[in-house]
## 1
Amino acid sequence: MAKLIIENLSMIYHTIEAETKAVDNLSLEVLDGEFLSIIGPSGCGKSTLLSVIAGLLQPSSGRVLLDDMEITKPCSKVGYMLQRDHLFEWRNIFSNITLGLEIQRKCSKESLLKIERMLEKYGLSGFKNYYPHQLSGGMRQRVALIRTLAIDPDILLLDEPFAALDYQTKLAVSEEVYKIIKQEGKTALMVTHDISEAIALSDRVAVLSKRPAKLKNIYDIKLSVENRTPLKSREAPEFRHYFNAIWKELDIHVE
Amino acid sequence: MLNNNFSKEHELYLKAVKRRKTAVIIVQILILIIFFLQWELTARYKIVDPFLVSQPSRMIKFMGKLYSEGMLFRHIWVTCYETIIGFLLGTIVGTLIAIILWWSDFICKVLDPYLVVLNALPKIALGPILIFWVGNGKTAIILIALTISLIVTIISVLTGFKEVDEDKIKLLKTFGASKSQILRYVVFPSSIPTMISALKINVGLSYVGVIVGEFLVAKEGLGFLIVFGGQVAQLDMVMLSIIILSISAYLMYEAVALLEKKFTVWRS
């Protein structure tokens, strides 16, 4: 069943100098419970696409449906995770996590309890009174994920969520984030330019063309590993086949 | 994760740091003592003319006289009061105007050249007009102090508002935040350091406004003492007032610094 449907989406940016077509007639479906990655050359309009899905930008034409409802403005059914954690330095960890609930005026006893449980489950309960600068980069990104999950969204949009981390941390954090998303049973749509990260985390990988972004191909990632996690996926024999195929598809020329 | 079992080397390092800190403070105090001592002595032995430069002992005598007349703290209080009201008003009103300009990009663009002109204008020039409008008195002095700090506050706080990370605002927008929520949750709190540094600058600027105002109209206050002392050739009065002024300005600056510490605990 399709959770999210993107229908003939086009997006044009206007500046005084020029108009730029960022997305061109793109259609895509994200199935319920799947992890789908969108990969494309840098500057191809991936982030624009996420902003449209999040309801932050109005498309020039086409539409986005979530559970058959058209998205026109930000709603609590969509959770958005940015490249950097953007924890507020002046709030402690707990009140950073309740930020979304406060804004949507949904701070109930129930929702706070749920946050407590999540903190407990993901090893952060000892840090809830800490301030962001006291946490490591990996922990901060975990907090950012829980902040997004706290508003209980139906679908998570991940905008290059690991790009600001160093390589080792990135591997560890993507493992954790993946597990949390799967445990919470969320549908996820991730934008990235990291091919191996896309393969390691996703059920399907959509490859976009250079700007204006068009859908080039979708890969079903089928890996022969049990109890799949991002780290285990990287060991699968099929991993490098997908890698090569996507690399060729991206058609990046090194001068 | 504090480790109290330091190695010998670390203890030596800590000692060296501490020793340096003490040395700085000692030299700072020494400079003060030597300065006043040479002032006293050179004046006493007529190397410099105490009529022109005064003398610490004569200043203390004058201070005693003021105190016994019950006027010492009266003058200090008047000046401090006018300054505090001036810079608090300057900061609050300036911040409010900055919020309006942040809220409406249109108003901000329209008013931009006027702000630039007002910023370049020496606000003291408005003094006579303000006095003409509100009369000789404290109100005029406070208004002069206010106008001096107002425009600087608007400009620096607005710059602070506009420097807030776009992605932090985007994050709030994804939660469906309204403009007033964006202001309340991210723009205002992340600009607190800017506002406090505006406050720090305003302490100094307000003193300028208050002293000039007192030069023009006052019958009491440190600025009045300075201008009056000059007119009656009482340099003791002038010098004493200037020294008290320096001390009170320093204390006020420290008070703001304390406030800064309190509002930025999350940084430590």
## 2
Amino acid sequence: MKSRRQFSVLRALLLCCCLFAAGAAHGVLTIEITQGVRGAMPIAIVPFGWSAPSTPPERMASIIGADLARSGYFAPLAEADLPSRPHEAAAVRFPDWRMVRVDNLVIGSLQLLGPDSYQVKFHLFDVYKGKSLAGYSFRTNRQGLRRVAHQISDIIYEKLTGRKGVFSTSIAYVTAIRKGNSFSYALSVADADGYNEQVILDAPQPLMSPAWSPDGQRLAYVSFETGRSAIYIQDVGTAKRTRVASFKGINSAPAWSPDGRKLAFTSSKNGNADIYVLDLGSRKVTRITTSRAIDTEAAWSPDGGSIVFTSDRGGSPQIYQVSIGPSGPTGRPRRVTYEGSYNARASFSPDGSKLVMVHGDRGRFQIAVLELKSGQLTIVADTRLGESPTFSPNGDMVLYANEVKGRGVLEVASVDSRSHQRLRFARGDVREPAWSPMP
Amino acid sequence: MKNLFYWMSIMLFTAGVVGCSATAPVEQGEVSTPSARGAADQLEGRGMVRDDASRGKALDEGSLLSRTTIYFAFDSSEIAPEFRDLLRAHGKYLASHPEIRITIEGHTDERGSREYNLALGERRAYAVRQLLMLQGVAPNQLEVISFGEERPAAFEHDESAWRLNRRAVLRYPGR
């Protein structure tokens, strides 16, 4: 563990050097493994070969290793413990790798083909069977190297776990930056590991609650730019934005229906916070909840047949579920959570079997997963001020916001809570992450 | 404790005056960004916050009317007895000045979820509005706006900051 931490620091330093050299504006400065992986699949990822005398333009093996470790299913061998550094299949001696007890081995090379043109090759081996499981070659430019590394991570992940990798997806989040007496806010989109940050909206007033459309093309979010909360939809590619809800009172917590045609949201236009559904085509608004309590933070089930939401109708915030038909609710809301004094901001796993939520108990606000069938609640991140959890689109990981040493950061936990990683951003308080759907 | 709240209120209010004066007036529905921020920053600089000259002239100096912040317990919108006199004074003042329209801002601490807190902030502001209306203030004099946990007055991540952030603030025009 210690060696990995040192490795991490070294890598951070190297990355910093790369950043200055490339002059690129990356969002993340370091990725720190805050909790090691127990019982995860040991894998060796050899630094990719690079023929030129200069330092390689991207540390492909580090990116892949960080991706795989973040999933919780893999434990990459520390660089210092590698018995050898082959770059080609012919140079691999399997007994060496059995000695260090890794199940799988990844090797590869990076080659400069011409001005801003690179070839990336990689092989994945089963060390015990002594055979190749996958081998690919990619051609890309300098800008595309990280993307290729994430694609390689996806291939490895799918080959070895049988499930889709999510390393080529994106995350959206809000950054608050304090400048003397005031704050400025930014809505950004970055790669799933926090790199390649692109600011898609700068605002002098608070921004909240980004939510991806199911096709990954648009983001709904809350902006206070008019002085009070209103819901906007922005096309991520064209930056075209539309205000879709600015009723009297609060307008918040937008949630797309799985077919992308409707937006559930919270409005207090009738006196207190209730859930409504806006049909994006007809602009018709349907009321879903009518209690005198706070009802907010709607999230759709993957089949579109129900909505979960936070309500304090029972005295404290808890999660409720209501069935939804074409013309509104088709039953009474049913309470879903009973453990803990505060449960809020729930959302479904992609298969609909679990909810992830903020779970408040004895003054701590942790991130918990509720198995809907059994009712079993598991803490996946023991945070003091955890917020805004979201499942990865393959359901294997949970991304959430946390406060560490006075600063808002994003963290990733595997759903089985075995691994935790922290994405450290270069600037500001980072909060309210939303994980994009699969491309 | 009461004394501390008193001075905090004065400080927040005065800082609010300084923060607001440079930006759009409240009655236009533009709630200026620097107001809450300014308050927190100036909490650190004590020399400035006792500057009586910048305090509003319509409000009686040193009276209950100079206090414009009401504090709440965690996840609660119940108005504690210690703030009833303050709200009664504002209610009487506003009832006798029907031309004055104010904004009631609701805020929360950072704990729990942001969207829930936005609704909780609104409920706090409505609780204050309700009490003012009992004093005869007309509904159209009172605009409610919630910022949830988005505009803290104090930035630390502990109870000392949280109790200053769980608040409703009465914003008079031009102040």
